[in-house]
Design goal:
single chain; about 400 residues; alpha/beta; Quinone Oxidoreductase, Chain A, domain 1; Rossmann fold; 2 domains; seven-stranded mixed β-sheet; six-stranded parallel β-sheet; about 25% helix; globular; binds nicotinamide-adenine-dinucleotide; binds zinc ion
């Protein structure tokens, strides 16, 4: 079959690889009909999250069930499904506590209670390095889905692939950022990062009744897309972020936003001085955006960290965290927890997800697709790939 294979930083190609097979009773094989590239894939592509051997990437995919193992009773060949991105067993302590990203069974080689530092991880993700379980991903014609009786959800035939594809990751992820802030209606939400995750957080803030939604980015066309797709106010990050904090405070009677969502991660656009600091402190990338979120939130407010941070970071503002009484939440989003509610919103027409798609390409164009998404060429916001074109 054809699949997108990473061969070290900056090199991803469409290769011919072996078709996946059923290995465990609870597996299913899915014929992928649509798949997308996530900002998280860019961390592997940049080398920031390393993968040494070649691997099929992709954790946002959907398709038709081709075959199921003996243990899968709720799905059959021909069912059309979306698959949440964490690989989770459904039965361990964390799965039972709606924390599928921390599943104790799906990533036995690298699982550990310590976490962080690119060594001890939580549960596995599809196509997301050996550290995260070593499973092949869904930027391919076929994919093996473990614990298929727990993750995949059947979707109605009345909806197109593009209408439901983002239920796999970015919509539940954006929604999680808002849910962590316990939004009840009437709040001001500030979102850093106007990429696919940030825009889904903005849509979710609207769904949950936030009164003002302000989105921040360094790239004007990304802000324009957020304004169009989620009807939010925009702020262009131009200098060191202090100017952004001032504008958010000015919009909130000097207090700061009730909820701030970090949807950028450890590889923001950062300047030379930030890069030197990272080398001196042996840090990966920069925690600059997260630090700015801590300033932009009001006292007693929440900062939801959706962007990925892999290492320790010196000078993290613990004093500010304590003095302001900030609630800090983060991690891989529990996609399984929200996917049914969110599918209902899509079916009812309460939210539209496919309006962020800017590029529809063939899987054979994968190198180009990663390049334009990473470098923000051709006003790229979200790429959807057809594995069969
Ligand atoms: N927690 C989860 O479960 C989860 C799920 C999906 C993605 N993610 C992570 O979320 C982050 C965003 O993903 P995405 O798909 O939207 O990717 P993306 O890279 O397209 O979006 C990031 C956006 O941040 C902007 N940006 C860069 N520097 C900035 C700055 N200083 N201030 C404001 N904005 C800045 C970029 O211009 C870009 O628009 C990534 O770190 C990704 O790994 C996490
Ligand atoms: Zn993702
Ligand atoms: Zn589990």
């Amino acid at each position: 079959m054809k699949a997108a294979v990473i061969h070290g930083a900056g090199k991803i190609t469409c290769d011919t690889v072996d078709d996946p097979i059923i290995k465990e009773e609870r597996d299913a094989i899915i014929k992928v009909t649509a798949t997308a590239i996530c900002g998280s894939d860019l961390h592997i592509y940049s080398g920031g999250i390393p993968q040494l051997r070649p691997m099929v990437l992709g954790h946002e995919f959907m398709g038709i069930i081709e075959e199921v193992g003996k243990g899968v009773k709720n799905l059959k060949r021909g069912d059309r499904v979306v698959v949440p991105f964490p690989i989770a067993c459904g039965h361990c302590f964390f799965c039972e506590h709606s924390l599928p990203g921390h599943c104790e069974n799906s990533n036995p080689e690298h699982y550990g209670p310590e976490g962080g530092l690119l060594t001890e991880k939580g549960g596995a993700l599809f196509g997301y390095t050996d550290l995260y379980g070593g499973y092949d991903g869904g930027q391919a014609q076929y994919v093996r889905v473990p614990y298929a009786d727990y993750g995949p959800r059947i979707v109605p035939d009345t909806l197109t692939d593009e209408q439901v594809l983002f239920l796999t990751d970015i919509f539940p992820t954006g929604y999680t950022g808002i849910d962590w802030g316990n939004i009840q209606g009437g709040e001001t939400v500030a979102i850093f990062g106007s990429g696919p995750v940030g825009i889904m957080a903005a849509k979710s803030a609207r769904l949950r009744g936030a009164e003002r939604v302000i989105i921040v980015d360094t790239v004007p066309y990304r802000l324009a897309k957020a304004q169009e797709a989620a009807d939010c106010e925009t702020i262009l990050w131009q200098k060191d972020g202090k100017e952004v904090v001032e504008q958010i405070r000015a919009a909130t009677q000097g207090r700061g936003a009730d909820l701030v969502v970090e949807a950028v991660g450890f590889e923001p656009d950062h300047n030379f001085l930030d890069k030197v600091k990272a080398v001196v402190n042996i840090e990966k990338g920069s925690p600059k955006v997260l630090e700015t979120c801590m300033s932009a939130v009001r006292r007693g407010g929440t900062v939801s960290v959706l962007g990925v941070y892999p290492t320790t970071y010196d000078n993290f503002p613990v004093g500010q965290f304590f003095d302001k009484g900030i609630i800090l939440k983060g991690g891989q989003a529990p996609a399984h927890k929200h996917i049914d509610t969110l599918l209902k919103y899509v079916v009812e027409g309460k939210v539209k997800l496919n309006d962020i798609i800017t590029h529809r390409l063939s899987l054979t164009e994968i190198s180009h697709a990663y390049k334009i998404f990473k470098n923000k060429e051709e006003n790229c916001v979200k790429v959807v790939l057809n594995p069969w074109a």
